[in-house]
Every structure is written in structure tokens, then in C-alpha cells.
Amino acid sequence: MAKLKLSKSALAQERNQLKLYERTLPSLDLKRRQLSVELNRARQALDQARQAVEELESNIGEQLPMLANTGIELQGLVNMTDFELVQENVVGVRLPLLQRIHCTVADYSLLAKPAWVDVLVERLKDAAELRTQVLVAAERVRILEYQEKRVTQRVNLFDKILIPTAKRNIQRIQIFLGDAERAAVVRSKIAKAKQARLRNAMLQPDTESTAT
Question: Is 66 among the domain residues?
Fold first, then answer.
């Protein structure tokens, strides 16, 4: 750590730094609070996406109980091959947003498969999209958690370190300069007193010479 300079220029510099820190802190704290709100929303969205997956899977089992028939080959019926994301700017943070997914459906004979397989294909597509939504929602939470932590660290740096340190430095410099100013005044008075005594001594007549 650099040694604190006890001078008027250093005092001016510390005061300017303090003003900058005090101007910056409110905006940082506002962003921290905004990120906290968005993080809570993202966590809720993640919970909702997970719940939607569970509900869909449960509904598939209720709507299509015939899936329990192991004699029907359904393996590899629907596969998600790709998905598209866009960037969303939320309080200055870029977050992924799912645009669409791409699925391939295996060729199957409409005569060889029962009619409910068409319904199953659509449900499997929905499930693939919802599972992808869960992954994207989890990534949004991860990014917002990181950004909130980062901004919180900066808030704490300004609030608990930079601003108090600048105030202490200003106080130290002011005390030093005040002491130095008082010491200079005392020295000046002493010097003036010495000069006055010297002048008085020079102006007083020589008593021995007067007596003779």
C-alpha cells in the first residue's frame, strides 16, 4: 500500500476521490437491488419450468396409459436436434432466451402404429422444449447469481473500504496540516518575540557609559 502523503494536494485528491466514491455507490447499490429482483424472478421461472416438465410427464402417463404396453417400439421416436437462443438485456446483463427448438421424428407407419402415437409425438416435442427451457432458465439463474455477487462485492468495497479509508485519510491529513499550521504560528510568534527582545536590547542605552 502506498504511503499516504500529508500535503494539501493529497488532501484535495482524497476529497475528489471521496466525492467520486459517494456518487458511484448509490448507482451500484441500485443495480444490486435490481439484480436481486431479477434473480428472484429467474429462480421462480426455473421452478415453474421444472414444475411444467413434471406436470407434462404426469399428464402423458394419464392421457396415454397404453404406453405401458411394452410390445410397441417407441425408442427414438422424437429427438431434439438443435435449438435457437437470443440474447436478452436485463439491467445491463445479457441473458439467454429460448427462441425455438428443432426436433426430428422417426419415420413410422401410420398403419403399423396406433393412432395415439401421433399424440405422443406432440407431447414428446413439448417435453423436449420444456426440458430445454429448464436448462436455459438454470443458466439465467447462474448468470444473475454471478452478476449479483460481483456487484455486491463492489458495493461492499465502496461502502466498507474505499469511502471509510478516504474519510480517515482526509482526517489524518487535516490533523497533520492543522498541527503544522499551529506549529508554524508558534514558531513565527517565537521568532517575532526574539526579534522584539533584540530590538529592545539594541535601543536601551549602555548604563555603564552613562554613569561615567
Answer: yes
Q: Is residue 103 part of a domain?
A: yes
Cell numbers standing for residue 108: 413410422
Residue 190 inside a domain? The answer is no
Range of the domain at 85: 25-151
Please give the average pLDDT of every successive group of 10 residues along the chain, which has 212 residues. Answer: 83 94 96 97 97 90 68 73 94 95 78 70 90 96 97 97 95 88 79 75 62 48
Dist CA 73 CA 32 (whole Å):
53
The pLDDT, as a whole number, for residue 112 is 54
Q: Which long-range contacts (CB under 8 A, 24 or more apart) does 77-86 make?
A: 77/105, 77/106, 77/108, 77/117, 77/120, 77/121, 77/124, 78/103, 78/104, 78/105, 78/106, 78/121, 78/124, 78/125, 78/128, 79/103, 79/104, 79/106, 80/128, 80/132, 83/132, 85/136
What is the tally of structural domains in the chain? 1
What are the residue ranges of helices labelled H in the chain?
A: 8-63, 116-156, 163-203, 207-211
Q: What's the confidence (pLDDT) of residue 70?
A: 54
What sign does the dihedral 14-20-25-31 (CA atoms) show? negative
Cell of residue 113, nine digits: 402404429
Q: Is residue 89 part of a domain?
A: yes
